[in-house]
Known about the structure:
The complex is a heterodimer.
Chain A: H1 2-27, E1 47-51, H2 58-74, E2 78-82, H3 89-97, E3 104-110, H4 112-119, E4 129-145, H5 153-162, E5 168-171, H6 177-189, E6 194-197, H7 200-209, E7 215-219, H8 222-229, E8 233-238, E9 264-272, H9 277-292, H10 294-300, H11 312-331
Parallel strand pairs in A: 1-2, 1-3, 5-6, 5-7
Antiparallel strand pairs in A: 3-9, 4-7, 4-8, 4-9
Helix pairs in contact in A: 2-9, 4-11
Chain B: H1 3-14, H2 17-35, H3 41-48, H4 57-82, H5 93-102, H6 106-140, H7 144-160, H8 166-180, E1 183-184, E2 191-192, H9 206-225, H10 243-265, H11 271-285, H12 298-313, H13 315-321, H14 327-338, H15 347-350, H16 352-381, H17 388-407, H18 410-429, H19 433-457, H20 463-466, H21 468-493, H22 503-509, H23 524-527, H24 530-533
Antiparallel strand pairs in B: 1-2
Helix pairs in contact in B: 1-16, 2-4, 2-16, 3-4, 3-9, 3-14, 4-5, 4-6, 4-12, 4-14, 4-16, 5-6, 5-12, 6-10, 6-12, 6-13, 6-16, 7-8, 7-19, 7-21, 8-19, 9-17, 9-18, 9-19, 10-11, 10-12, 11-12, 17-18
Amino acid sequence: MRRFRATAPAALAASVLVLAACGEDAAEPQAEGGGEPAAAEYPTERITLIVPYAAGGPITLMGQTVGTCLEEEFGQTVVVENREGASGSVGMQAMLAGGNDGHTIGIIAVPASATNPLQDDVGYTNEDYVPIAVGEVIPSVLAVGADSQFADAEAFFQYAKENPGELNVGVPGATTSQAMELRRMAELYDVEVTAVPFNGNAEMTTALLGGNVDAVFINSTEDVLQNIEAGSFTPLAVSPEEPIEYIDAPTLAQVGFPELVYSTSVWGFAAPAGVPDDVVSTLESAIENCLSKEETIETLGEQYVPDEFIGSEEFAARIDDIVEVYGPILQD
Amino acid sequence: MGILDGIGQGFAVALDPINLLYVFLGVLIGTVIGVLPGLGPTATIALLLPLTYEVEPVTAVILLAGIYYGSMYGGTITSVLLQLPGEAASVVTTFDGYQMAKQGRAGPALGIAAVGSFIGGTVAVIGLTLLAPPLADLAVEFGSQEYVALTALGILLVTYLGTRHPVKSLCMAALGLLLATIGQDDITGTTRFTFGQIALFDGFDFVAVAMGLFGVGEILYNVEKTEKAQAIKTKLKNVWPSRKDFRDSSGAIARGSVMGFFIGVLPGGGGVISSLASYATEKRRAKDPSRFGKGAIEGVAGPETANNASSTSAFIPLLTLGIPANVVLALIFGALLVQGITPGPQLISQEPEIFWGVIASMYIGNLMLLALNIPLVGVFVQLLRVRSGILAAFALLVTMAGVFSVNNDSFDMWVVLLFGLVGWLMKKTGFEPGPLVLAFVLGSILETNFRRSMLLSGGEFSTFITRPMSGTIFALMALVIIISVISGIRKRRRRSRPATPGEEDLAATGTTAEPEGTPGNETTDEQAPPAESGVPRDRS
């Protein structure tokens, strides 16, 4: 202890240096090995699957469920590691630092994973990782409370149009897809509501039930579906291009906003850039297998696992779309 | 769900063998650290926090809560036997408890304290059971404006109540508020004061800050003192109090239960204030106040009851509003957040097993403590033989391993060490870490909700006054400020400083009140400048 105190300033100074050095390391894109000849066999050792969010949430559940399944597929241990922080950027850095031989993979949550590098220097760019497969797709839903004056989307948006900025709509965070869609709604269609950022679904639910916001634009996770079923939320509209069968509401495109189709959370798997192509396809087909298993679907929720598997290319195209749409908004 | 269903479900959770084990562990650890001077409940909980991440959320809270109210029992033992309070809330117990021990009545003093603690704790749990659900229903209506009012009130009370130097506390609270602004801003998503360091995007990790300030700061401070191990010579016999003792203290226990319950709910309340208030009340009510300080059993029974009651009722604001009432609760708040659970009005309906499980575990924990304390007092006392140096080294090791395990990030270890140094320096200079940490926690709630209110109201400040609930709270705050300013002026005229209830009694024995979160009592002598306390300091 005494020794520590004597050396503390030096140790602290050293730590700053070490940290700075680490930062640089992690920032270095690990793309040198791009397109290298395939590893003869994969996987040859244990796989680390990095979940960039805190333990306990549905994203971790997806990591653990698919991780366990991959373990059976490959006969290698899969270690699921939670590395939360900075909206997933910490986990992304950890994945990139793990090397691109395919034995370190990670979960990405789009749009956050793709929009983080557009807003700040987070130590990676969208070129530093390769999307592998989509695990779950969670659409957003615009909902009002049970005693709301708005019975449907038409009434809601009519009012919003006539009274710009008067309606308060809770969104799950300042830079979430929900917040950005509302901004695009104002820019493209001149329908203006006030987006009020909250931290996560629990706070938004309380705010809506307590009548402190007029509506919420929220990820339709299990808890929200329960509230809809119980009648305490009335869904007005959903975000995807196509209507969804488990929420009885039109799409935003159907009620007059044909461009607003991007507010969907997509959770998938990715590997550091430069990972050999055949490793990507091995992982792709293994994950496809896992996602078609009855027990996986049941654990993750039938409604969230895509009916048709979304592989590497399609996932990448989707991320490109989002970068193109949200990029300009985030950079102004 | 009705209260009966709820409590039934709660017992089903609490009686699960694992949870039962953790209740027991909690109250046992609580008693032990209550006995050991230097390590208070705040430091212990701060140090043990990371170890709770591996268990279920409900089990984690059961353990931490057990440590908290358990320490309220344990602190009594050394107060009575050695005039050495094991944790801050037991300071008052030294006045009459030690005198009783000198008269050969250490047994009854400890006995009545255990019984009183049990009654106080149980009354408070019953209050919690009955009051929390309706309060949570009410809290659903709370909007951002009400949260602004409540957190502002909390910060005000924390800096004012139970602190010796309001100005120093205010400085620390301001520092805490500033620290809370580091990281990504909730409303616009821009990063502030991060210097491009991704590790700072989410701000300082609360757990790391608290572990540093309370845990490591405390350890460093204790090591510096190289205290000798204590041995107890007092013989303990007849722990169970006589019928006359019970008669004498029944009123004190009843009043202590109620008073402790209500003080515990207040932000910044908690053990110390409630035991002081109870002591002052008992002394005022006594037919012969001169008995106090000379071994009056009411002077032991009342405060010990009150501090236990308050340590239980302090859970009410956390479990219903998501606002921690004091630093220990702030740590438990942190533990829940790490587990992915945000305490708030939705907790009862969405996580009933946590809410009711914790409450049920408190009934069980209080029973266990009664059973532990009456027969085993002699064993606990032997713990004082442990040298603080050994304890410190071990605690530091656990801390560093623990904080690393949270995020697998060595950055957090540096944060702990840095704040440990800060905490140690603060202790040496008489600044209290409590207001800093609580302001740090409440600061982000305050800021986010303030800006949310501005968004919701379109920038109208009047929104805080026109909404009935936030208006009432702000009126209350104005009242507190006016009263304290007036009494401050009057006190100054009398050339004295503003005193918390019972502080005169403290001054008389040469100790000063320590707020929750500054566990070691030994510090007080050096901290209080002689000019201010103005009494001869006779404690060794």
